[in-house]
Amino acid sequence: MADQIPLYPVRSAAAAAAAANRKRAAYYSAAGPGPGAERPSRYQLEDESAHLDEMPLMMSEEGFENDESDYHTLPRARVTQRKRGLEWFVCGGWKFLCTSCCDWLINICQRKRELKARTVWLGYPEKCEEKHPRNSIKNQKYSVFTFIPGVLHEQFKFFLNLYFLVVSCSQFVPALKIGYLYTYWAPLGFVLAVTITREAIDEFRRFQRDKEVNSQLYSKLTIRGKVQVKSSDIQVGDLIIVEKNQRVPSDMVFLRTSEKAGSCFIRTDQLDGETDWKLKVAVSCTQRLPALGDLFSINAYVYAQKPQLDIHSFEGTFTREDSDPPIHESLSIENTLWAGTVVASGTVIGVVIYTGKETRSVMNTSNPKSKAGLLDLELNQLTKALFLALVALSVVMVTLQGFVGPWYRNLLRFLLLFSYIIPISLRVNLDMGKAAYGWMIMRDESIPGTVVRTSTIPEELGRLVYLLTDKTGTLTQNEMVFKRLHLGTVSYGPDTMDEIQNHVVDSYSQTHSQAGGNTTSSTPPRKAQSSAPKVRKSVSSRVHEAVKAVALCHNVTPVYESRAGAATDAEFAEVDQDFSDENRTYQASSPDEVALVQWTESVGLTLVNRDLTSMQLRTPSGQVLTYCLLQTFPFTSESKRMGVIVRDESTAEITFYMKGADTAMSTIVQYNDWLEEECGNMAREGLRTLVVAKKALTEEQYQDFESRYNQARLSLHDRALKVAAVVESLEREMELLCLTGVEDQLQAGVRPTLEMLRNAGIKIWMLTGDKLETATCIAKSSHLVSRTQDTHIFRPVTSRGEAHLELNAFRRKHDCALVISGDSLEVCLKYYEHEFMELACQCPAVVCCRCSPTQKARIVSLLRQHTGRRTCAIGDGGNDVSMIQAADCGIGIEGKEGRQASLAADFSITQFRHVGRLLVVHGRSSYKRSAALGQFVMHRGLIISTMQAVFSSVFYFASVPLYQGFLMVGYATVYTMFPVFSLVLDEDVRPDTAMLYPELYKDLTKGRSLSFKTFLVWVLISVYQGGILMYGALVLFESEFVHVVAISFTALILTELLMVALTVRTWHWLMVVAQFLSLGCYVASLAFLNEYFDVAFITTVTFVWKVSAITVVSCLPLYTLKFLRRKLSPPSYSKLTS
Fold first, then answer.
1. 683-699: pLDDT as tens digits
2. Which residues are catalytic?
3. Contact indicator for 996, 752 with CB cutoff of 8 Å
């Protein structure tokens, strides 16, 4: 019966798609097969001038069959051709093939079980036909067996580390051995030990967290009574008892509660990021049973749909077979308790329907990809360039030798001799630097509460070009304030709320006195009515109707805190709370709802109690009105409206109230001439609008509706469509009562922060799920779009032709912000992805409204893909997590919507205004410091390799090491490590200057601090200094070879220390300490290194002047050049600091 309900007036999605395809086929066939065919008529509607500027569409049959977007559309479009054959294989095809093969093998090994719908018998897990996954949570990356291989793979996928592994292993071959083993294995072992230890600690913490959650004890109901069971041992079909403030261990259907109302509240902030409590309803058949044990005396089962991703929907049925006739009850989202939520009131009993990997929370958890910073990728490229230089140098050496003897062995020995060109300490220094930057960010008192969760990408904060932000809770406070009530002929604002209060008081005093039947008291009002103008009376009654509708049509529940010392028993608590205003708080699924109910309280109509079947309002005179709740239709993102059907207990009148977005309600309410205009006016003020309407129903009308509605709800196929069709039969010609406006206030410091970021050259995109009008208004009020800029609102498009014309219209605009809705965006990306992105990227600001979480993530990915620039996403709710994880750098705000976004982000802040300092000060300095540090460490390796090359070439190209053993280890560690690492404390401008001149940030996006140009400058410096140091030592050669080592090595150490001093822009006391500490370590070690140094010689004046002379020649020209450059072509920052 239920399955035969017609689907009108809702069109099924399939039918709509088929119709669209037919339309498109007709549309294209109109063009005809020939090249000279005419265009369809819809293009002829545009005026002729538009044709001149129009993008030609490619009309080939093949293009339409493939339905791809490779059309020659915008003149600027770059059409890339696919590489074929060998060229494709060499240019990355081999990588694609390997990946495909690996994926295929993994799929073979881990065949995913097909998810199916299931029948679950209450309390009998053994009756389950299929095997279901264990209810254990596993967040660990590795197992005991895969830990070491996994960590090593992560390390050696970097070219730098792989290269050092090969070099170190080569030392086990006697013919290739050129030094002590520890000179190669000690640094590599240290790097690996640090990494493995760090990963092991993280993995152990994850294991402990998982173990804690999996071993939580719950009460399980069995025939023999209650037994304790671990969370990981819970099975599908178990009856589990969850106490107040306890986490729900698996996805369950809610059967019973200790609350008399048969409902309970749950907190879902860990699931969807929303902090508002949700009301859940127990299955009425099981709630009515006299005792808990009766759950085993009945023969009942739950039919549940297959596990799905959507946390906001559920379809199922509850069936009790042992009653006559069998009882069938439809189950929806309000009868479910998802895993990860927390029970906020009472004790609940539920039957488990999904466990482990099949729970909604686990299915919605995506494994976050590990992010690599742009600086790391650039350094990896430079490392490869150094490797090529190393090979070239070795080949040159062997060539100059004349390929005598076993030349290939000599080639390998030269490769090993010059291996210091690529310094292993680069990775260590950079990782330690990143940790230091993270520590500095968290210690900054100007941005308290900031947490660095991903320590590997602080430099990314200094390279951002696009910032994508959420609106609600990120730019705004998510605190709603009621601002406006419009009745069509009259509008009330914050200044005139007392008039509404007077109208409400008047209307209730009249009805109260008339209800009392007292003729003397009811006479004066009649006189007043006859003398007063009719407009006044109608306005008063209309205000009363509007306020009553707002007070009844919502999902808000008043919650009373039990007083200290009161009994915990439900009955006593209820007597004690006494509905007093002081300890009443409102709970709802949206802050807008709470704002509306708080407003009705302020004008005299107070919501004092609500349960599943009734609602009580208190009038200004203290009288309590009771309304019976017959039906509730919750708000969904598709319907954009919610409604209730109530029966007034005193008059038995049945009324259907509905409120929703103006787009949804405009077709439902009776004809009027003011709604659209006033909605636009309110949206321009930045208010969120809701249209409120009502319809009176007779008892017969309601009974007919109820029978059809219950049939639709029991349907197993197309249930949502059938229910919507039945409800829509009521939603016709409703009486428009009022339009409400609620304001979401901006966060502190949003305007100056956005202004600063725009001056820093960062383009800001706002991605929100809110209405187009509200989003546009917030964009203007927050100065996201500056006052002087035009705004282009992209018209709603549904087809390719419309998108084509609208993109043409947009292309003619210059320097204007774009506002587009999610639906239109989807159409544009389907047909004209490249062209749309190219146009959008030229806009100073873009606002995308009505965006789903997946759309937000897709926009971020497309921006990265099309521009190749660095993106940052910032949000505060569970719906922003996918966007945050997709961006190069994700920032989460701990806000009203919970901590989900801040926990998933790379950086967590407490307020939006902290973003400015995080990027402009910390991001900028982190990048500049890491660039200097990376290049300096490379310089340190290059200079010693140059000296080795000069030494080998002088001594007949012998592959003999210049420095051996501890000298090589000491050079990279104790002798130069501290001064080089102290570069992480360097700053070119003060933080307050960087905040005052955000334009300084612009330079960084060009990546000039670390480029092939700066790298080549450092290479030239290294070659010059290495040559001077080595030739100088040889020119001043004494009788013994040992003196060459002593002179050149000492001069090398001094040169390195002086070069650090040359690079530093602002001295810090720790830098000075590091310089003297390193020098002290070197001088002290001279006494012990007898095998390398002649102590008698190094204490002579000859030694001192020779070393000093070489050092001066190697450094003085560079100091002179730096001085001249600062005078003749000073950098931008020096102009500000001078």
1. 777 788 899 999 999 99
2. 470
3. no
